[in-house]
Amino acid sequence: MNLTAVDYLLWVAIPYAALAAFIVGLSWRYRYDKFGWTTRSSQIYENRLLRLGSPLFHFGIIFVFFGHVIGLVIPENWTEKVGISESMYHAGSYSLGAVAGIATVLGLVILIYRRRTVGAVFSATTRNDKIMYVLLGLTLALGLTATLYGNLSGHPHNYREDIAPWFRSIFYFHPKPELMVDTPVFFKLHIMCACALFAFWPFSRLVHVFSAPIGYLTRPYIVYRTRDTRELGAHEPRRGWERVGS
User: Fold this and answer.
1) CA 50 to CA 111: how far, in whole Å?
2) Which residues contact 6 (CB under 8 A, 6 or more apart)?
3) For residue range 76-93, what is the model confidence (pLDDT) as tens digits?
């Protein structure tokens, strides 16, 4: 198969550039912008729409994420070895994926509507947030369109034969762009939008995905501190009982 320069650009250069921006950007953000590592919650401004849209989006995106992990990372022959036929796998993945995708998109629509129509929330929306919503919305919409179009047309695309091995080849550092040449256009657009989203990820509020309040599991219920060093003596204080500098 004769590959063009565009094929190498789309299926080798851009994915590696997005991956590099994602890793380097997260490292830079964590080191130099820890105080900006936040969702910038707007719950204080409006709660009714948030209580509806946020669970739909977050629970939906969790299922979408794990569906992508299973579909792209686990090879087709692995699932066959445990007794899951290809027809069973696709029936389950497409039905659950469609439900999760619709829930995620609906939740995102509610959140965008809230951000656009509630004055205080809109005022707190930055240009960075708008770019993030556009990239996230396009990525989700194109992925859902690719899935639904294939099923409704009666010709679902088996992405485990081309997209999944291409995806794994990127991480093997032995990319196979030839696998993507005949992939349906909606899947190609979905992947390009996903690359743009991941490249932009470290510079948006999406970094909160990598924040986990693990310290809350072991910290004291109430944090006590003292300025009087005589009360604690010379021993190392337990966590939550640190001395306060004068």
Assistant:
1) 7
2) none
3) 888 878 877 777 777 777
CA–CA distance, 193 with 141 (Å, rounded to integer)? 10
32, 203 Cβ separation under 8 angstroms: no
Distance (Å, rounded) from C-alpha 57 to C-alpha 153? 27
Helix (H, G, I), strand (E, B) or coil at 123: helix
Taking the whole predicted model, whether its pTM rises above 0.90 is answered as: no
**In contact, 202 and 22? CB cutoff 8 Å:** yes
In angstroms, rounded to a whole number, what is the distance separating the alpha carbons of residues 48 and 43? Answer: 9
Place of tokens 């939740």: 107
Nearest to 139 by CA among 238, 50, 51, 206: 206
| Average model confidence (pLDDT) across the chain | 86
The Cα–Cα gap between 187 and 176 comes to 16
The enclosing H or E element of 116 equals: helix 86-117
Token pair for residue 60? 């939906």
Q: In one letter, which amino acid is 85?
A: S
